[in-house]
Structures are given as structure tokens and as C-alpha cells.
Amino acid sequence: MSEQQFNGAEVVLKALVDQGVEVIFGYPGGAVLPLYDEIFKQNHIRHILVRHEQAALHAAEGYARSTGKVGVVLVTSGPGATNAVTGLLDALCDSVPLVCLTGQVPTHLIGNDAFQEADTTGITRPCTKHNYLVKDSGKLADVIHEAFYVASNGRPGPVVIDLPKDILVSKAPYNPPNRLGHKTYRPQTKAEPRAIEAMAELIASAKKPLFYIGGGVVNSGPKACADLTAFIRALGAPCTQTLMGLGAFPGSDRQSIGMVGMHGTFEANWSMHQCDVMICVGARFDDRVTGRINAFAPNSKKIHVDIDPSSINKNVAVDVAVVGDIGSVMEDLAALWKARGYKLDQGALSGWWKQIETWRAKDCLRYDQASSVIKPQHAIKRLYELTKHRETYITTEVGQHQMWAAQFYKFEQPNRWMTSGGLGTMGYGLPAAMGVQIAHPDALVIDIAGEASIQMNIQELSTLSQYRLPVKLFILNNQYMGMVRQWQELLHGSRYSESYSDSLPDFVKLADAYNAVGFVIEKADDLDSTIQAMIDCPKAVIVDCRVDSKENCFPMIPSGAAHNEMLLGPGEKAVGPVSEDGMVLV
Amino acid sequence: MSMDKSDIRSHTISVLVDNEAGVLARVIGLFSGRGYNIESLTVAEVDPRTKLSRITVVTSGTPMVIEQIKAQLSRLVPVHKVRDLTLDGPSVARELALVKVAGTGERRVEALRIADIFRARAVDSTNESFVFEIVGATDKLDAFIQLMEPLGLTDVSRTGVVAIARGPHPL
User: Fold this and answer.
1) pTM exceeding 0.90
2) How many helices and strands, by DSSP H and E, does chain A display?
3) Which ipTM value was assigned to this complex?
4) 3-state SS of A514-525?
5) Which site from A141, A326, A583, B153 is most exposed, i.e. has the minimal number of CB atoms within 10 Å?
6) Is-catalytic flag, A53?
């Protein structure tokens, strides 16, 4: 222990600096005033003031996911902490590394129902990877270093450090980060050689292989993505990505057969149903992906590569489990593949591709842009065409527009696509875009939004203004909570209960009020020119893109159905009515 | 995956954890949050020097669920070790119960007689009651309590199961 003593808040700032933190997203309050005082006195770390604590979390998520660094958040006690909960769970579901510092009433008042007291560690326990309540200032520095280690190692996730106010003002020693590792939390990064061997043998035996890759590949880093891509390309096998995995394999590559799952492509879902060897890398057999579980890929052997052993055999029993970091696994696999001279059966593979091409020929993402009424798919397609050659980052809110963005915007690189996958948090996209723009000041950052979702964190327009963040909000305005409306149409007799977006603001005036620029697009012919104006504008922009209000998101696997029962479009009827089991599914 | 009810089996799992605030809440929250079953749970510090506590949890589920429970427990940060005593070789399991029986006359004599057969010890006595201490496997305690029912059983307190692997090796 070092001799020199600091006050607790100084220790926190020193630890953050030593952890390489450059930005904190936060909102002050009584319990964290000592920390804000230290922030005031230093120049190493930039603080971004949000307008609601939830936005601080999503901004930190956007920052983390577009850089691979840990996102850092600072909020006050009580309501500050409870407002952070949604963002914490969002980060847990999507494995985003965050450290969230929460203020707390002084230790002697804990449990007294003090002003702005909340049982933050109790409330956030199931919403975080781990959390701490610091009651001993002697341990403060070590806890912060450990929190960064836990957040970023293994399967990443959010970590909360609850800091009572007396700890922030009392004297404490400072210890620099200890690189020796953690006494208990040591995730396995290098896979067992036997597992790699079993994996290679099973892949080599495949006649109809399919790579099913997810957000874990992105989390493993750009090199892991490149190594996996190189391996898949050398094999010539098809590759489908989950919502979180978009960009881990180049979206425009011929071997990419698009997204899998409820609104994935016809070819991806049919391939999943018909493949004989499925290689799941960094994905988790989520219910959006598997459809009806007892009809999921019935004739396949499955390999699952994941750094989190609890992801393996959770929803789907697999034949080969490979626990390790994907980067390390891909290095080992590629080396073994080469050393053993494995090859896929080329005849079988070309037959498999022939089959996949017949599914691809269905052109499942087709839409009919016949009149001047803008089809939302067309709007995103034009947005993609006009921005794909730039350094563009896309965030989304949640709903139909999110699925259309996933279907029509192709990502060639990882870390360019930020969306709320596991939790499905409306209001994610605008603050996430703020975080991305902070990390990449010169990039084009677009939040593809819906008119309903965008209102859930619309207050952040003020943050965009304060920090002159030129984020572009591209709102597909169909005047409905579109996904809710779609389900009501398909499952509840078109009774559109409370899903109409009434009393919408004038988005152009709203933009003006927040020192941004607003555009309206009402005709398909105006799409390109307005999108270009948006790109060229040096300020934040809101585009109110009025789209066909009745368009539904297809293709679709109805609730409780299997991959081969996918609906291609509104003309197609489900094999049967949605079952009672299906009705209860979300 | 198998959802066959006949695959459901009881497992005794030992978990070595840091004895720190909130660790039990983490374990219990994991079980309740994920819908796992807790049949019995015991916890106490076992090494004051290293501040380690041992949790013994008896749970039931299909092999896939049990595997999942162990994986979920293992990834909790303060968890040092997770062992499935039911799968990892032979083990011994014990439980202690304090059983209060109130009655007079022949019922009182009969209660004492049965206690003797079960090697239960009277640890408290009044003219109209006994408190018996009984140690053994869960089914032995169940049987004893059942026999005490008609003899004036008024109160039971049980520790839950503690278990340890047989042989010389530590957890």
C-alpha cells in the first residue's frame, strides 16, 4: 500500500486515468458532487453531460461498441441509479463492456431510507455482470481496477460501482492497476486442443455447412472478425449473421446469405433448417433466431464456439462445445486445418450452394416502390447507397425500422452497427449515436429511427447541440409503432390498440428549436437529394421521412413457427393459424 | 433437447465463495431469476483465514438444466469452485433437525422410544414436551418427523443439507 493519501474522489479519477478512460457520460447530483469537483479540476477526462441517465448508458454503449473500449458512466444515487437500470440491462443482454459509477448516500445512512437512497447493488444485481458497494476507502482503487477487468474480460458486460459519499471525501491510498489477474474470475480464452480437433473434424465432414455468427465475434475484435472471414472464404461455405453479428463478416460478400431469425432472409433461415453442420460462433441460439426450438435445424450437428460456458447447451444442445476467445480459436483452427490438409467435399458444397441459390432467387427482400409513396425499405436502400462509401456508423431504435435497417444496410466491417438486440430498448439509437460520434468525431453517424422510438430519448437533442455533435436522425415516420401495429394486424384482428402515433411533433421545428436542421421527405423522388443534403450538413439533422404507414416487415417467421414455415410477404398465408403456444410468445 | 420429466434428478452442488456482502443474494437471485428450483440451501464460513464460505445447494432438473446451473454459478465473480457432488463420485450428506414434540402419558413415552431408535437426542425437556436433535440423511429426518406427527409434533427447524465428497481430497 502506498504512503500517500488522497481523497476518495481523487482516487476514482486517478484510477480512471490509469485505465485509459478518455470520456465519461454522466449527470451530476448530490451524492456525486465530490467526483464532479474532481472532474472540474482536471483535464485528462472529458465529461459529456446527458439529459437523462438512461441516455448516458446508451451513449457509453455506442462509444464502447464502436471502439472496443470500456464505456464509462457516472450518475448520482437514487433516481440517477434507477434511471440507469434499463441501460445496464441493455448492455448485459448485448455483452457491452461498461463501468457505471453510481453515487450512494453516506455509509452511516445506508438502510435509513435517506434522501435519494436506493438499494443500488440490490436493484442492479440481475442487470449487471457484477457490482460493488465500496464501504472501505482502502479498497476503492482496487475495486475500480477490478471492475474494468471484469467488464472487459470473458464475455463483456456492465459493472456497477456504488460509491457512498463519505467514501468520496475520506482519505484513501491509491494503488495502480495490478496486472496479475483476478483471484477467481479467469475466463478461459484458449480452447482445449481436443475441442479444436473435434470442431475441425466435424467441419471437414460437412456436406451442407453453415456458419452462424453473432455479436461475440465483434466483441472478440477486428482481428477475430478478419480471421473468421478468411477461414470462411477459404472454405467457400455460406455464412449467416445474427442481428448483433452484422459486420463481423462482410455483408456484400457472395458467401453472406444475410441475417438469420424472425426477420432474417429466406435463404438464411432455410439454410439453417437444412444444413448438416452448423458452426455457431459467438451467438447464443436466441429465441429470435431459433424459432420453434423443437423444429430447429433438425438434421444438423452443431458446433458452438463461445467464451461463456453458460451460453453452451442453454437453449439448444450442441455436439461440439468450444469454450474460448474466438480470436484464439480461429488461429488454432486455421493452423490445424492447414496442418491436417482438411478439405470440404467440393461436389457436395456446390450442390448445397445450388440449393441456397434457389432460396436466394426468391428475392425475399423485394418490395414494390411503384408510386411516389415512400416504401421504408426503399428509403434505407437509398440511404445505404449514398453512404456506403463513407466512414459511416449506423445506430437504430427498436421496431420495424430496425429490422429494415438490418436487412437493407450492408456492413463490411465490425463495430459499425449499434442496435439494441437482446433487450430491444426503444430510445437506444439517439444516445448511442452520441457516444459513437464522440468516439469518431469525423465520421458520419446516423440513427435510423422510428417516429415513436425517437421520442423516448428525444431530450438528447440538447446534448447534440451542446457538444456540436453532427448526428443524423433518419426517422422513418409511418405514424405507428410499426412493429406493434404489424403484430396487431397479424395476431389481433387488426385492432390497433394504442399503437397510433398521435400528436407527433413537427420534427423540423423541433430540430430548429435544438439548433439542428430539419428536413421532411414526402416523395420517393426527393429521397436522394434530401439524404445528400443531410450528409452534407455540418450540423445535427433530423430527417422526417414520411413512409407508407401500412408496410409490414417481411419475411417473417411467425411466433412459434419453424424456419421452414417462414412467410415471404403479405400475400402468403401462414401454414396454419398461429398456435396458442405461439400467441404467448413475444 | 430433452424435456422429459423422467430426466429430472436431484443434485447436491457445493459452491465455494468469497464470504462478502451480497454473495448469497447473488446465488439465490440466480436461482429465482432463472426459475431454478432450490430444495435446500445452507451456507456458512468454512475458512476464516481466507474468508471463504461454502454453499451447499440441493436442486433438481434435467441434465441440461443442471449443467446450466453449474455454468451460471461458475461465472459469478466471487465464486471460486463449483462441484456437483451427485456426479463427481461418492459423497456423504447430512442434515440436522430440532423437533419439538408436546404431549403427556403414553404418547410421551412413545416419542422417547422412537427417538431412541433413531438416535435422536433430547436437548430440551419439560413435563409436557421434548426438543429432539436428530442428525442424518434427509429421508431419515423425514421419516422421524412423520412418526412424531401423531405424537404431538408442534415445531420443526432444519438446517438443510451439508455434504462433502468421500476420500482424502478437498473440494
Assistant:
1) yes
2) 22, 20
3) 0.92
4) CCCEEEEECCHH
5) A583
6) yes
